[in-house]
């Protein structure tokens, strides 16, 4: 029953005999004791009320359910304690594989990850220093492309509202791509042009307010998530600043809401459903004993709608 | 190992002896064979990409995780075949309890539900003819209240876009509450004033277009879900019809998006997180052997924002 080795034949026989003698049909639990397969995948996400993660789950489920795997869902609420608890549970319940989207505890807790004896895939994070396969969009490149698109349309004064810096993909990476693009095109970044949101529309509303108190206003803003971009659109609407006539707004994620705003949001397509499918496929490959790449990159795209205008 | 009876002592002993002789620590699976507790709750929802259901899950998780129960997630995609498959799986995996939000198959498949031997709670549906506890908002009354509020503000020509009729809570019940309020106030419902959406913003956009082709336009529209109300707001925006100056719009659900639209949506507060918590609590009560009401009603409220105006 040690998860890392095949079941010893004598144990297998003993359990089967016990089941036989009592005349019961082996049920899923008894069977999994013997076959060592639960056909359950543990999935840990930080937040289920966030559309991004619910669509990630949908993608994972659509792949694994085809192969008759089911999902054990762990919601960590971004709490390190819960992350550790669920990893212990995953092990105890002898799940067949694990997909992790919530790994705050990583810093300094690499041991926990190294002790997992079943296949693991991590999504949304690049795990430097681990052998664990990851599935991720190239956030730096995508933010670079979004910013370069604004620059290509003639914008020079471009502000940026990033995700929180404790979230490397939406904070550091997307901010980093913006900075890289500005630098590559020889454009300065005024100090007041860069702000950090906390993923809520409200935080971006406030950040935009601060940015527009600057003496020189930006002609375009790159916002690291669509939900925060909605906060920016609302600030501009409430101030009577027209989008895109006065200011262009570029989002990131291409959530459903991006096509429901007026004007509709130009954004980066970063499909959590495809993330989920890719993660599910990487995990299934491992379960079949196939080798997988250490890092798979989910492609990104610009989705051109109505919130960005060329400067003439 | 038959779920309906205690484990027979001889089997219990045999399994424990097999485990002992081989020198292994009993793991969660071996332990659950003996204790008959998996501490896993099966939760079945139709659609995870819908914010309503992801927040329902969040509410359920917040209650059960406090008592060290975890969640086995089943996404049915509204497919009867998947619903049956997952119910079989729930049984096989010997989950301790079940919360169902997806029960399309119910008509004519009552046998399946009657065969479940663990505690069950159904959310979002009133299960007439079953003994299964349900958790639900009073959709008829809530829709009645929303419509009566519009009437109280002086509106007489009120249109309604309901959910699809195959979904009783959002289709029949919310439409029913609207009809009941109109009738109670002696107001006629012109034929073209009633339309059915399919939950998408797009379907409501199209429905609103048809309603506004009528010779006599409505002064207010009651829309059975917030997401569809966004579709209506967008149609009116694109036509240059002002909300609430020309037309009032009332939503239902109070999703996050209701406070992100411009104007912000006046709507019915119908909190899926609270649903989830109530369902989790009803299930925990059953697991502790306490009696539960057959039907619990989650309270609703009107949330007054900016999309509805009094007629003078």
UniProtKB/TrEMBL annotation, chains A, B:
Domain HTH lacI-type residues, every copy: 1-35
Family matches, as Gene3D superfamilies: 3.40.50.2300, lambda repressor-like DNA-binding domains
Keyword annotations of the record: DNA-binding, Transcription, Transcription regulation
Coiled coil: none
Keyword Transcription: yes
InterPro entries named in the record: HTH_LacI, LacI/GalR-like_sensor, Lambda_DNA-bd_dom_sf, Peripla_BP_I
Annotated SMART domains: HTH_LACI
Protein's recorded name: Substrate-binding domain-containing protein
Organismal lineage: Bacteria, Bacillati, Bacillota, Bacilli, Bacillales
